[in-house]
Amino acid sequence: MGRIRPARRILAASVLVLSAAACRDKLPAPAGEKAQTGDVSSTQRDAALAAARVWQRPATPTGAFDFRRNPGGPGAFDPGQEVECTFKRKKLGGTTPKFYCTLTDGETVKVKYGEPNGEIPSEITATRLLSSLGFPTDRMYRVKSVRCRGCPPLPQQALTCLDEGGPELVCLQGASESRVVTFENAAIERPLPGRKIESAEDQGWTWFELEKIDPARGGSTRAEVDALRLMAVLIAHWDNKGPNQRLVCPEGKDRPDGGCAAPLAIIQDLGATFGPKRMDLLNWRKVPVFTDPRTCHVSMSKLPFNGATFTDRQISEEGRQFVLALLRGLSAEQLNTLFDAAGVTSFSHVLTEAHQPQAWTDAFLAKVAEIASAGPCPS
Q1: First to last CA, the chain
Q2: Engineered SS bond to 273: which of 188, 235, 333, 349, CB 3.0-4.6 Å?
Q3: Sign of the four-CA dihedral 231, 232, 236, 237
């Protein structure tokens, strides 16, 4: 069995980088898997977006939410669990360390690994926070370790090498069916169950498209949409390109005509939050919720990508009050538990105090106070 060591990381990374220079072909889709393409017309997708909800009353009252626990449901993982799986050659986007792995029951999940990997604590924090408030998200499970059979020492780099045409002998150096590589303090991601609604590959939805949500057609109210906008600013969700959000038809909500009875507009990638980097207390403190608290204008233009798809916006008073009511349901003790369970104590921070959950809680509550002192906003 193998464990990831710094010296081996450097050696393996060097080999993979050099091999990738000679790449020509693309990594084929795994056998038996259908390529992800647009499955609905643009008209059908627009209809689903108009009827989309961004918020639902949480099943567990916010004040009773236990942030120490991983998400529940079938197949839930315990935070102290050592998960067994088999490496799956499946293409992945992005550059952060991750790979797909097939569990013993046949389910394939995404695994995020590596230290320091700020996506792990930031995504666990953000998904649990939003879920507790009623904003649907994918499910992130922190586990003690993932024991991957057949894994190369550096799965992300190996998959990139293969995708760019590198020879298997070089790209998958160190991997074999009999060898198990252990990734400690990893996170497992499961998507919110349901069908993606998109008329183009990796379409997702952009923040300026939230204007299309129509309460008269079953969609969320302006207050709920503005509350989601405020939460996105509060956690600094700056990597908000279309594919990092998802329009989804939950299980059991498909209509015979191909439509959806209750579509949801969710954020599906929250790894780049609490920054503007990832889990960066020093700079997160400096990001204001409002560019103008008196008029309730919000913006991400000073964050990476100049705000990406999040255009400057004036928040309604109804939205400000809505999100305040949600946030005031959280106690300081719960927030300390949230940041602790997400792993801020062990992450490699710039600031020493960032290892203390209380420092994050204080910064969070300061942002809540900023929302409370703003306005009143225009209705």
Answers
A1: 61
A2: 235
A3: positive
- Indicate the residue type of 287: V
Banded model confidence at residue 5, pLDDT cuts 50, 70, 90: very low
C-alpha–C-alpha distance, residues 151 and 180, integer Å: 7
| 184: nearest Cα among 140, 232, 144, 226 | 144
297 forms bridges with which residues in the sheet? 292, 314
| Average pLDDT score over residue span 294-311 | 96
| pLDDT tens-digit map of 203-247 | 999 999 999 999 999 999 999 999 999 999 999 999 999 999 999
Per DSSP, helices labelled H in 287-331 are 317-327
Reported as half-sphere exposure (CB side, CA atoms, 13 A), residue 188 has a value of 29
Phi first, then psi, for residue 346 (nearest 5°) are -105, -10
Q: 211 in helix, strand or coil?
A: helix
Sequence spans of domains, the chain: 2-20+40-373
| Cα→Cα distances 303→273, 296, 320, Å | 11, 18, 22
Q: Provide the CA 240 distance to its chain's centre, in angstroms.
A: 10
- Give the range among 174-178, 291-295, 312-316 with minimum mean pLDDT: 174-178
Cα dist. 30→33, 35, 53, 106, 316 in Å? 6, 9, 33, 14, 47
> How much is the pTM?
0.87
- The answer to whether the Cα torsion of 106, 121, 114, 78 is positive or negative is negative
Residues 6+ apart with CB under 8 A from 45: 197, 198, 199, 203, 247
Closest CA to 113 of 136, 85, 133, 134: 85
Tally of CB atoms within 10 A around 311? 15
State the Cα–Cα distance between residues 122 and 274, nearest whole angstrom.
Answer: 6
Residues 342 and 132: beta-carbon distance below 8 Å: no
Could you read off the pLDDT of 339-375 as tens digits, one per residue?
Answer: 999 999 988 887 899 999 999 999 999 999 999 999 9
User: pLDDT band for position 296 (50/70/90)?
Assistant: very high
